[in-house]
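Why does residue order matter? Because the sequence determines the fold. Keep that principle in mind as you read this record.
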Amino acid sequence: PPPQLPFTLERPEYYTVPSSQELLEMIQEESLVVRDLVVGRTGYGEVKFLGELDLWGLDLDKTVFFRRKEISVYPDDENKPPQGQGLNRRSEVTLECVYPIDKASRDNVTDSKEIIRRGFPAYLEKKTFNMGAKFME
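Structure:
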């Protein structure tokens, strides 16, 4: 049988950087240490977990969730490890397809000039700040 990864990520629309094949080559005894691991969901976004992380035994299917305009890591606080352990660490999040909604048509506003005119970048920056995070761009 082909070698198996020592962590779980089976949802087909989710991916990692480095790739599964590259991660297989990084296994050493009973550890899989990765620097700046990226977990993403096609069409939704990705999260980069900063620093060195041992993936051995982690269940990413039960830990990382992307939904429209949001990400959750450890949605159940009972299973969240202390800060700095597992995936509970500093990270950079990129969300895709985050647009303001036109109230009349209920459509996404995708024109960059209209997005700026509506103050959407400032709105996102404020929401990010209120979460205790830093808005990058």
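The mean pLDDT is 93.
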